[in-house]
# Entry
Amino acid sequence: MNRFTFRTQMYLGLAILAVCFVLSTVTRQGVFTNLGWFIYGALFAVHPVCPKRYSYVDQEQMRRWLRIGGIVVMVLALITRFGV
# Structure
């Protein structure tokens, strides 16, 4: 299996968010919105992918910051309550 590129991972995350937003609206359950954001953050926490235009930056440091950003999104999804 090929590894995701940054663009592929962004589009996959946006598709997951869109599906979860639609589920949240249809079912009137805000937990689906939180679930979508949690999955989106988990994508970057588990598999941090750097954009090609930032190839001059230290890749390990960039991956570390992407993981931290993913974890922040996951925590915000856990503590935020979205009402539909």
In short: The chain has three helices and no strands. The mean pLDDT is 89.
